Amino acid sequence: xxxxxxNPAQSDSYFTLSRSSKGLYKDRGSKFLYFGFPVHxxxxxNSNLASxxxxxxxxxxxxxxxxxxxxxxxxxxxxDGEPNHSAGDPILGQIRSKQLTNVLLVVVRYFGGTKxxxxxxxxxxxxxxxxxxxxxxxxxxxxKLQLEMTFPYPMMNEVMKLIKANHLEILAQEMTLDxxxxxxxxxxxxxxxxxxxxxxENLSIRIC
Length: 208
Known about the structure:
Layout: E1 2-4, E2 13-17, E3 21-27, E4 30-38, H1 42-55, E5 61-68, E6 74-78, H2 88-97, E7 103-110, H3 117-134, E8 137-142, E9 144-151, H4 156-165, E10 169-175, E11 179-186, H5 190-197, E12 204-207
Parallel strand pairs: 1-8
Antiparallel strand pairs: 2-8, 3-4, 4-7, 5-6, 5-7, 9-11, 9-12, 10-11
Helix pairs in contact: 2-3
């Protein structure tokens, strides 16, 4: 697992997974296929779950946990037929232990004939979830805003200097009677950038 971060988590950032990951963990004959996904909505979560259910339709259980939102306040854990709190909660616990959000972890179990007991199940699902994270990459994601600016062409140099000085990302540009630029910027820079933009004449701003 590689952790990529410039600074500890700040008010306009959070930690999440950078990509999808998967692997296999075995315990006394049972196979636990584990999967990790970065996600941004329940629609995306349900799509991933539907795809896995279709692929592993013959599995004994498909257990999962997910967390959404900058502060991780929206979440769910599902045991899918395993004893209460023996699967979903251990998976969720691994997401919480790494302080992650916008993450879906899924563990698909194929029963191997030997019962693991409650403690055995908890350990197996916990280990599988931990591996799904460990074999991925954790990185710091910034909460961003989109900003649309329209201005006359003579103001181009002044606007571009401000964009460069604040490391703003240009998402789109449109040339009509005026010049229109769509930018992406960190949420925490909002007041600072808007104050400077208001100093530029004949410039209109819209927060998307």
